[in-house]
Amino acid sequence: MTGSKRVSYFLEDSLGGYYYGPKHPMKPHRLSMTHNLFLAYDLYRHAEVYRPRKATAEELLEFHTTEYVDFLTKCNVKHASLMKVHAKEGQKFNVGREEGDCPLFDNLYNYCRLTSGRTTDS
């Protein structure tokens, strides 16, 4: 193959600040570590760097039901007792079970909008 490959990097350091819970294998602080290495080794000089945007509710509705998106908006809270209430409702969406890979966590809706916007833009 001739020529160089194009590399795109979506720079969003706030993703490392989310916490999925103690039993979830993904540790978002690893994203922060990766981001810091990307900068420390000047890799940004060899990539097209973008800032991701948050997907709109309309964009989420292209792939998900209204009921599910409404559920996510209700989960955009920081109060633990409300999380427990939403976890019960989330069972029908396979969200919020401790042993599952789709946990409930602070600002879940904002996180979903950010990761969805990044995905659709890439």
Automatic annotation (TrEMBL):
The organism's place on the tree of life at top rank: Eukaryota
Boundaries of every Histone deacetylase domain copy: 24-119
InterPro entries linked: HDAC_I/II, His_deacetylse_dom, His_deacetylse_dom_sf, Ureohydrolase_dom_sf
An individual GO BP term: epigenetic regulation of gene expression
Pfam families: Hist_deacetyl (PF00850)
GO MF annotations, alphabetized: histone deacetylase activity
Protein's name according to its UniProt entry: Histone deacetylase domain-containing protein
